Amino acid sequence: MSDIFDIAIIGAGPGGMSAALEAAQQGASVAVLDRKATPGGQIYRDVTQSPLLDPSVLGREYTEGAELVRAFLEADIDRHQNADVWHIGENGEVLYSQDNQTRRLVARELIISPGAMERPFPIEGWHLPGVMTAGSAQVMLKSDGMVKDGAIFAGTGPLLYLIVAQYLRLGVTVNAVVDTTPAGGVGRAMQHLGGALRKPAYLIKGLKLLNEIRRAGVPVFRHASNLSILGESKAVGLQFQQDGRTHSINAGHIFLHQGVIPNLNMTRALGMEHHWAEQQLCWTPVLDDWGQSSIPHIAVVGDAAGIQGAEAARHAGRLAALKAMNKLGKLNDADLQQESSANLKAIKSFKAFRSFLDAYYPPTPEHRIPVATNTLVCRCEEQTMGQLRAGFEQGAKDPNALKALTRCGMGPCQGRQCGHTVSELLADWQNKPVSDIGYYRLRSPQRLLSVEELSQFQNIKPVQKPAEVSA
């Protein structure tokens, strides 16, 4: 019996669960480590134990995830929930926190799926109490059945409209939708129309969401610009411009959203090669068709590999698992190609559809790259755009130099909330492409650790099967 797992998977969202199921069905010993108390990721969060009387109000894509979660829970997989991974070694070693203890396992192949995060929305007042991301509104809804009546939803992208529709189905009042999608969406996306037509069901779903919001009578302000939060010690409203006029709407809760981007902390700490994806305006790991990264034994799947959605993540998870089995010598090249064919074709169609969405719903420069000197950029270290500009003028020309000079990116989130903004600010100030600027250099541990936790150490090994024990 080996003390090493064949495959360790980090993250139990759609991609991680699908990878685990495929690998287990292929006969691999599989360990899955997930930060949350229950599997499902953000998309399928608490789908098998929803606090809502009728979870179907969240949409068919959500409820369909219950089947995947149940299959995952029933499979022969070594599952570890509430497991927060903070280090991955070059030898396949994984260190994580669970039950206030440090635990360790080793695997021959690793598949990581740390998911996505919402793109920073650094506008004046975005740090005030009462301002959250639209994704936070959905987390509260899925996890606890909590909502905020009379909120404003502001930003762009399909997820924003989905969450507004979910609120309305529950009878929750929405004060306004302030849509920052720039005019000319049809023209921008027309060259990708062929890709969109490959997924007509998704187009119809989007139109239905817009009609649902319109029929509910929610005020919708299209092509809004120059957003700022009103309030001194807490949010009291939102100010913006539309068609040359300035509008102010009162609300104690404001949910911001301008798309999602890969959660980079784990892939960056590993030293993976990344590139600036101009289409999605974010950094992504450099991967092949099977999700294989620049590190030979590590693959990346799900939205951490580039934003494509839950269904695409399932296909990506299966592809990564099949490739891992091939590398382990448990699946020959011919069978790998045959079993991967349908998944590779599906991924290609999702990428084509995503190109249409990215062109139609681009986050505007003014809401990504702040120009007001008092706008907070690094919320952990309370560094404003003006302070970062001063650091730049003192000679900090790249993110790491700016971090050293200003402490921007040194807080508990380790740059998650400011990393992309800093890259784009430095590119703008130097009139260079973002790809030339780079990103923060990150290292393990990826979270704060206590001495007490480190003193409680346990090795985790594959569970022996009955046949192995008798042998």
Automatic annotation (TrEMBL):
Organism expressing this protein natively: Pseudovibrio ascidiaceicola
Protein name: Pyruvate/2-oxoglutarate dehydrogenase complex, dihydrolipoamide dehydrogenase (E3) component
InterPro entries named among the record's database cross-references: BFD-like_2Fe2S-bd_dom (IPR007419), BFD-like_2Fe2S-bd_dom_sf (IPR041854), FAD/NAD-bd_sf (IPR036188), FAD/NAD-binding_dom (IPR023753), Metab_Enz_Cyan_OpOx_G3PDH (IPR051691), Opine_Oxase_asu/HCN_bsu (IPR017224)
Pfam families referenced in this protein's UniProt entry, alphabetically: Fer2_BFD, Pyr_redox_2
Keyword Oxidoreductase: yes
Segments forming domain BFD-like [2Fe-2S]-binding: 376-427
Keywords carried by this UniProt record: Oxidoreductase, Pyruvate
Residue ranges of domain FAD/NAD(P)-binding in the record: 5-126
Native organism taxonomy: Bacteria, Pseudomonadati, Pseudomonadota, Alphaproteobacteria, Hyphomicrobiales
